Amino acid sequence: MSNTRKLVRLAALAALVPFAACSDILSLDVEAPGRIRDEDLNIPGAMAGIASGAAYNLTDAFDAVTQQLSMAALDLGHGGSYDFGGIPLGLFKADVEDWGEYTTLSRARWTAEHGLLRMKEVLGATDYEKSANVAKAYLLGGFANRLLGETQCRVNFDELVDGEYKAGPDQPHTAAFTRADSMFTRAIAVGTAAGSSGAAIVTAAYGGRASVRAWMGQWDAAVVDAAKVPTTFVWNNTFSATNTNYIWVETNSRREMTVSTVMWKDVPNDPRVPWVTTTQKGQDGQTPFSRQMKYKTNDAQIPITHGAEMRVLQAEAALRKGDYAGAQTNLNLARSKWSMAPITLATNPTAAWATLRFERYATLWMEGRKLWDWRRWSVEGAPMKDPASGTRDMCFPISQGEQRANPNIKLGAGGQWGGCPTCG
Predict the structure, then answer these.
(1) FRET partner for 105 with CA separation of 20 to 30 A, picked from 39, 53, 158, 176?
(2) How many Cα atoms sit within 13 Å of 410 on the Cβ side?
(3) pLDDT tens, residue by residue, 301-323
(4) What is the mean pLDDT of the chain?
């Protein structure tokens, strides 16, 4: 299933760039309109296509991992015939089966970061610093790095050394957050200079930067950024009828994942977590099947950052300071997006954190974020840690393919797991 999906996606990607900047690219003197040489992209009119290619690969990365992250963190249960290995059971850190999605995640980062190098060369310094396409590429690179940091136990990056790209050593996952912070900051600066065409990019970048700054322990700075994202704001992935949301596919065309076996089966009327019961069984013929209804069509968008997420982030920052009133206010602002009744937050840590966790889980349901929440709260312990996370694995290893190809990846002490207290 996964390999077939990737082949279809790669075929679609090959056709993406020519159509993304039609006015300039299709006027080129090339032998075949569908086959564009690399050097033919070195024109200003191709920059929108490069940014679109980065958006496509980021969407592909989210699509590749969100369904698996949802099962790993029990946002959805497995009830199908596909073999997801130990992921639904919370057993995947040991890399019994290769985590090939590391390539997909890394491709999303690479496409944005290396697209920026081309943009700088083509546009020149002045136009580069005020291009909305450049700002968008920085934004997408920031989100790609955030996704790596939240998903992976450790990460590695290719770097330009003496004119050649070298595969770098494994590093703590926090290196991806540092990289994301830098890219979000650049997206804000360039997007601001771009004017109205960069306004939404700037808002999304504040949302992205707020999250990674929180993950790096910079909660006060995170709150400042989060406050700049309106509650109604959403920055989505870019699914389409030909670039399909596979959670929809696996819960509509098939019945691979179900709500019937996870905590949400006991939460029937929350508009943030919409689902319906059915009389059907899962694709395995045994598991009761309840269908998620958050993603109702094959082109339904998975949010990457949004204002309700920011309100919950502000609530968590307040709760960390013992500001129960501030936490309650922000949780209710988040709930207002769905016209939900306000809640009263308990003023003891254990109960307040239980509520905070539930509100964050519901607000970001099936957006691929819960496993990271389990991981970061588990490191901190009570009252933050969710007892439901238990001893489940909470991050994925660098792929076996990368390990084989890159001699700089260390295993054992100081390598894949060593020196990483939040590796799950």
Answers:
(1) 39
(2) 11
(3) 999 999 999 999 999 999 999 99
(4) 88
